Amino acid sequence: MSTNETSHTPSADMPTRSQDLAAVVVAIGAFALGLWIVLDIAAMEDNPIASLSGGIDAKQYPKWLGAALMVLAATVIVKPAVRLFTLHGRPDDALPWKHIFSVIAALFLYVLTFRQLGYIVSTTLFGATLMAAVGMRRPVAMIAFPLALTLALYWIVRLIFDIHLPFGRLWSGLFGG
Protein backbone atom coordinates (compact mmCIF):
# COMPACT_ATOMS: atom_id res chain seq x y z
CA MET A 1 0.00 0.00 0.00
CA SER A 2 1.27 3.46 -0.76
CA THR A 3 1.41 6.27 1.80
CA ASN A 4 -1.55 7.98 0.13
CA GLU A 5 -3.74 4.94 0.68
CA THR A 6 -2.73 4.49 4.32
CA SER A 7 -3.23 8.15 5.22
CA HIS A 8 -6.92 7.92 4.36
CA THR A 9 -7.63 4.60 6.04
CA PRO A 10 -8.63 4.74 9.72
CA SER A 11 -6.85 2.38 12.10
CA ALA A 12 -8.01 0.91 15.40
CA ASP A 13 -5.75 3.11 17.53
CA MET A 14 -6.72 6.33 15.72
CA PRO A 15 -8.89 8.83 17.63
CA THR A 16 -12.57 8.96 16.75
CA ARG A 17 -14.07 11.89 14.88
CA SER A 18 -15.58 13.09 18.16
CA GLN A 19 -12.21 13.07 19.89
CA ASP A 20 -10.70 15.07 17.03
CA LEU A 21 -13.59 17.54 17.20
CA ALA A 22 -13.09 17.89 20.96
CA ALA A 23 -9.38 18.61 20.42
CA VAL A 24 -10.24 21.25 17.81
CA VAL A 25 -12.82 22.91 20.10
CA VAL A 26 -10.40 23.05 23.05
CA ALA A 27 -7.58 24.35 20.83
CA ILE A 28 -9.86 27.08 19.45
CA GLY A 29 -10.72 28.06 23.03
CA ALA A 30 -7.03 28.16 23.96
CA PHE A 31 -6.20 30.20 20.86
CA ALA A 32 -8.99 32.67 21.68
CA LEU A 33 -7.67 32.99 25.23
CA GLY A 34 -4.15 33.64 23.95
CA LEU A 35 -5.44 36.25 21.54
CA TRP A 36 -7.43 37.88 24.36
CA ILE A 37 -4.31 37.99 26.54
CA VAL A 38 -2.23 39.59 23.78
CA LEU A 39 -4.81 42.10 22.55
CA ASP A 40 -6.65 43.01 25.73
CA ILE A 41 -4.77 42.18 28.91
CA ALA A 42 -1.24 42.89 27.64
CA ALA A 43 -2.44 46.17 26.12
CA MET A 44 -3.74 47.47 29.46
CA GLU A 45 -1.67 50.18 31.03
CA ASP A 46 -1.79 48.33 34.35
CA ASN A 47 -2.35 44.76 33.18
CA PRO A 48 -3.25 42.26 35.89
CA ILE A 49 -0.43 39.87 35.09
CA ALA A 50 2.55 42.16 34.69
CA SER A 51 1.48 44.69 37.33
CA LEU A 52 2.27 42.19 40.09
CA SER A 53 5.60 41.06 38.62
CA GLY A 54 8.85 42.65 39.66
CA GLY A 55 11.25 41.48 36.97
CA ILE A 56 12.73 43.55 34.19
CA ASP A 57 10.68 41.82 31.51
CA ALA A 58 7.48 41.64 33.55
CA LYS A 59 5.55 43.90 31.17
CA GLN A 60 6.37 41.56 28.30
CA TYR A 61 5.25 38.41 30.15
CA PRO A 62 1.55 38.63 29.15
CA LYS A 63 2.47 39.09 25.49
CA TRP A 64 4.78 36.07 25.58
CA LEU A 65 2.23 34.03 27.51
CA GLY A 66 -0.55 34.86 25.05
CA ALA A 67 1.65 34.31 22.00
CA ALA A 68 2.90 30.97 23.37
CA LEU A 69 -0.67 29.87 24.05
CA MET A 70 -1.69 30.80 20.50
CA VAL A 71 1.27 28.89 19.00
CA LEU A 72 0.55 25.86 21.19
CA ALA A 73 -3.14 25.93 20.25
CA ALA A 74 -2.29 26.29 16.55
CA THR A 75 0.03 23.28 16.67
CA VAL A 76 -2.51 21.20 18.59
CA ILE A 77 -5.33 22.02 16.17
CA VAL A 78 -3.57 21.02 12.94
CA LYS A 79 -3.49 17.22 13.17
CA PRO A 80 -7.07 16.67 14.45
CA ALA A 81 -8.46 19.24 11.99
CA VAL A 82 -6.73 17.53 9.06
CA ARG A 83 -8.07 14.15 10.19
CA LEU A 84 -11.59 15.59 10.49
CA PHE A 85 -11.59 16.63 6.84
CA THR A 86 -9.55 13.84 5.26
CA LEU A 87 -10.40 10.61 7.05
CA HIS A 88 -13.81 9.10 6.53
CA GLY A 89 -15.42 6.00 7.99
CA ARG A 90 -14.22 6.56 11.53
CA PRO A 91 -16.70 5.93 14.34
CA ASP A 92 -18.48 8.80 16.07
CA ASP A 93 -19.07 8.71 19.78
CA ALA A 94 -20.76 11.12 22.13
CA LEU A 95 -18.65 14.18 22.78
CA PRO A 96 -17.81 14.84 26.41
CA TRP A 97 -19.07 18.43 26.22
CA LYS A 98 -18.96 18.77 30.01
CA HIS A 99 -15.23 18.04 29.98
CA ILE A 100 -14.57 20.17 26.94
CA PHE A 101 -16.27 23.23 28.37
CA SER A 102 -14.70 22.67 31.79
CA VAL A 103 -11.25 22.84 30.18
CA ILE A 104 -12.12 26.03 28.28
CA ALA A 105 -13.69 27.56 31.40
CA ALA A 106 -10.60 26.60 33.41
CA LEU A 107 -8.40 28.46 30.92
CA PHE A 108 -10.42 31.64 31.28
CA LEU A 109 -10.71 31.33 35.07
CA TYR A 110 -6.96 30.85 35.24
CA VAL A 111 -6.36 34.22 33.62
CA LEU A 112 -9.09 35.93 35.62
CA THR A 113 -7.83 34.64 38.99
CA PHE A 114 -4.15 35.21 38.27
CA ARG A 115 -4.06 38.65 39.88
CA GLN A 116 -5.78 37.65 43.08
CA LEU A 117 -4.28 34.19 43.59
CA GLY A 118 -0.89 34.65 41.92
CA TYR A 119 1.06 32.31 39.69
CA ILE A 120 1.66 29.41 42.07
CA VAL A 121 -1.87 29.06 43.47
CA SER A 122 -3.75 29.76 40.23
CA THR A 123 -1.51 27.50 38.11
CA THR A 124 -1.74 24.66 40.62
CA LEU A 125 -5.55 24.96 40.71
CA PHE A 126 -5.62 25.12 36.91
CA GLY A 127 -3.55 21.93 36.66
CA ALA A 128 -5.77 20.17 39.21
CA THR A 129 -8.86 21.25 37.26
CA LEU A 130 -7.42 19.87 34.04
CA MET A 131 -6.57 16.59 35.73
CA ALA A 132 -10.13 16.34 37.06
CA ALA A 133 -11.51 17.12 33.59
CA VAL A 134 -9.63 14.18 32.10
CA GLY A 135 -10.85 11.81 34.79
CA MET A 136 -8.20 11.82 37.52
CA ARG A 137 -9.80 11.04 40.88
CA ARG A 138 -6.83 10.80 43.26
CA PRO A 139 -6.83 14.08 45.24
CA VAL A 140 -3.22 13.86 46.39
CA ALA A 141 -1.95 13.34 42.84
CA MET A 142 -4.30 16.06 41.53
CA ILE A 143 -2.61 18.61 43.81
CA ALA A 144 0.93 17.23 44.14
CA PHE A 145 1.74 16.88 40.43
CA PRO A 146 0.51 20.36 39.35
CA LEU A 147 2.15 21.94 42.42
CA ALA A 148 5.51 20.30 41.70
CA LEU A 149 5.34 21.27 38.02
CA THR A 150 4.27 24.83 38.89
CA LEU A 151 7.12 25.30 41.38
CA ALA A 152 9.65 23.87 38.92
CA LEU A 153 8.43 26.22 36.16
CA TYR A 154 8.44 29.15 38.59
CA TRP A 155 12.09 28.61 39.46
CA ILE A 156 13.10 28.04 35.84
CA VAL A 157 11.44 31.29 34.75
CA ARG A 158 12.84 33.12 37.79
CA LEU A 159 16.43 31.89 37.47
CA ILE A 160 16.85 31.71 33.70
CA PHE A 161 14.73 34.63 32.48
CA ASP A 162 14.79 36.76 35.67
CA ILE A 163 11.01 37.20 35.49
CA HIS A 164 9.36 37.50 38.88
CA LEU A 165 5.98 35.86 38.48
CA PRO A 166 3.35 37.35 40.75
CA PHE A 167 2.48 35.85 44.12
CA GLY A 168 -0.92 37.53 44.04
CA ARG A 169 -2.99 39.53 46.44
CA LEU A 170 -3.97 36.45 48.47
CA TRP A 171 -0.35 35.54 49.20
CA SER A 172 0.55 39.17 49.90
CA GLY A 173 -2.42 39.53 52.26
CA LEU A 174 -1.67 36.33 54.13
CA PHE A 175 2.13 36.57 54.33
CA GLY A 176 2.78 40.27 53.79
CA GLY A 177 4.92 39.68 50.68
From TrEMBL:
It holds the Pfam family TctB. It comes from the Bacteria. Keywords: Membrane, Transmembrane, Transmembrane helix. Residues 26-166 form the DUF1468 domain. The chain crosses the membrane at residues 21-44, 64-82, 94-111, 143-161. This is DUF1468 domain-containing protein. The lineage of its organism: Bacteria, Pseudomonadati, Pseudomonadota, Alphaproteobacteria, Hyphomicrobiales.
